[in-house]
Amino acid sequence: MSQHSIIPRRATQRVMVGNIAIGGGAPIVVQSMTNTDTVDAAGTARQVFELAQAGSELVRITVNTAEAAAQVPHIRELLDQKGCNVPLVGDFHYNGHRLLTDFPECAQTLGGYRINPGNVGRNRKGEDQFAMMIDAACRYSKPVRIGVNWGSLDADLIVRMMDENAKSPQPKEAAAVMREALIVSALDSAQRAEKLGLPHDRIVLSCKVSEVQGLIAVYRELALRCDYPLHLGLTEAGMGSKGIVASTAALAVLLQEGIGDTIRISLTPEPGGDRTQEVIVAQEILQTMGLRSFTPMVIACPGCGRTTSTVFQELAQSIQSYLREQMPVWREQYSGAEEMTVAVMGCIVNGPGESKMANIGISLPGSNEHPAAPVYVDGQKVVTLRGDNIANEFKQIVNDYVARNYARRETGRPHSKTIPIHVIN
């Protein structure tokens, strides 16, 4: 049966991005980012909708040109027509000050802004670009994520800090100075934003690097120095298993220490790959750590010489896909279905035991075993399935269990279930 652990969380301010709360004891928020050309409003809205359907609670879109800024209200309109109210966060670099000024409807439509202080300073015209962007955030009452990235760190800041370090009686290693520069950039920018009028509770910070130990070190220190909510993510994590493993290794350590209020897994998609994979990975990190529940968990054995048949592998894959596809429907109709555990086992060694410990379990026959698949519901054997229609019959048992055991919702779509939160003061 599903059980949650209790991980103490770092105390932070709560920041609202549209209708989504970040920090202040709120569930850790999953977010993602489109890779479409924002000028293509229909294509961008389609991908935002897919990401939201997969479970992304915030979606960031690139706003890099006048043409892109002009399409933001239309993207919002297309999403609203689909009943998709996921907040959009505008990702601004270099010219964000001008776009937010020249396209007020874009500035108003977005749920929040992401500003990188490393490439938003004072330009050749003497315009204080950072101040102009903060002014827009104040004018339209929008939250801001001040997102520092070691690939675009303020050059003047790092040169100054490196020079000061070189003159120190006990100079630090260059990597340590770089980490400190990331933290200083984020905190100094946040303090300046507040002096410019942005309320303390409209600021989220991030300091992203692409190396696991560096990310852990930076966020541990940053968490000690402020009470802003923190956005976690290993930048440029990479493709496939490398990106998943590296992101998980870094974020799991920080999350276990109570650090992190919203996360994004920055995976490079395979050619033609599905962008929603980064959402699924983020959810699975949080769910396997017992921090949130998003979709029923499938327990399946890895297979061995006893399980030479591929039937259980195919069934496990089919059931896992089915549960994820059904979850948006169940989330609308029932309360708590995301807590369910389903076991799909491949032989009699651990099959019956694991099946009994799950809400619903099936133990398929292994090599040379009797061709029958006992099904267990809440620890009790209820039926034995045989024949070629086992997958569909088992799915129907799952559907019946959800309808019978989880309360029907009256209205609204809630957050996914989260564990009890103990905040560290």
TrEMBL record:
[4Fe-4S] cluster binds at residues 301, 304, 347, 354. It comes from Candidatus Nitrotoga arctica. Gene3D superfamilies: Dihydropteroate synthase-like, Sulfite Reductase Hemoprotein, domain 1. The gene is ispG. Residues 298-399 form the IspG C-terminal domain. Belongs to the IspG family. Signal peptide: none annotated. This is 4-hydroxy-3-methylbut-2-en-1-yl diphosphate synthase (flavodoxin). Pathway: Isoprenoid biosynthesis; isopentenyl diphosphate biosynthesis via DXP pathway; isopentenyl diphosphate from 1-deoxy-D-xylulose 5-phosphate: step 5/6. It catalyses: (2E)-4-hydroxy-3-methylbut-2-enyl diphosphate + oxidized [flavodoxin] + H2O + 2 H(+) = 2-C-methyl-D-erythritol 2,4-cyclic diphosphate + reduced [flavodoxin].
